[in-house]
Design goal:
single chain, 235 residues, alpha/beta, Rossmann fold, methyltransferase, tRNA (adenine(22)-N1)-methyltransferase activity, SAM-dependent_MTases_sf
Length: 235
């Protein structure tokens, strides 16, 4: 992967960036995504935010090598602290982190979202918490994609301003993904069910404390919920 040829995962993220956007890529690593977006004339300006010094220095080198120092600002900062009000950022990408970390980044500086009209978020795990955050903060799902790359399954969530209501199962599985039920989607949730069933088996020999009983109940509920949807042809 490089700034000319992104991974399938980042290419999917890039496909949802609006043309002419001022983009902030948080946790930008080598700044491949911002460089790609500028080179392809998708974004007009970009910020590459990185909290770790090594990747920050790699991003600075990459932007310099691409000759994009006038279009991309690389900043060493924690999360949305990389964004200033004067930047007038209207789209944010956050990719390659867990859902809870992405949510904590969004919550730590909500004022940075004031001018933002689109969020493109790629959680490695626990996309559910992003959907929960979106409902509470008046963001609505424009689209969702699930894909597999190098034996790993990723979800990409695209959010825009607006109110949204989701059922319990839509929060867990993703409303758009549930409607499509792709092969990758089915594979992901069949694996998840197998993991839950393994945990259930491991609990069989445990002392039936209130915590253990609650965990068993939660797992049985999740298994029934997801199995029901996987076998429901009409959802």
């Amino acid at each position: 992967m490089n700034a000319q040829k992104l991974s399938k995962r980042l290419e999917t993220v890039a496909s949802f960036v609006p043309t002419g956007a001022i983009i902030a890529d948080i946790g930008s690593d080598h700044a491949y995504l911002p460089c790609y977006l500028i080179n392809k004339k998708i974004a007009k300006k970009a910020i590459a935010g990185e909290v770790v010094k090594g990747p920050f220095e790699s991003a600075v080198r990459q932007v310099r090598e691409e000759g994009l120092i006038h279009k991309i600002s690389v900043r060493l900062a924690d999360g949305l602290e990389a964004i200033d009000e004067s930047d007038k950022v209207d789209a944010i990408t956050i990719a390659g982190m867990g859902g809870p970390l992405i949510v904590s980044i969004l919550e730590n500086k909500p004022s940075a979202l004031d001018s933002v009209t689109r969020l493109i978020l790629q959680p490695n795990i626990h996309a559910k918490v992003i959907r929960e955050w979106a409902i509470k903060n008046n963001w609505a799902l424009l689209d969702e994609v699930i894909l597999e790359e190098d034996d790993k399954i990723y979800e990409v969530l695209v959010l825009q301003r607006g109110e949204m209501e989701l059922s319990e199962v839509e929060i867990l599985l993703g409303k758009h993904l549930l409607a499509e039920k792709s092969e990758v989607f089915i594979k992901k949730w069949q694996k998840e069910i197998e993991n839950w069933e393994r945990v259930l088996t491991s609990l069989d020999g445990a002392e039936p404390t209130s915590e253990i009983l609650a965990k068993r109940g939660e797992l049985l509920h999740l298994i029934d919920l997801v199995k029901g949807e996987l076998h429901n042809e009409n959802s």
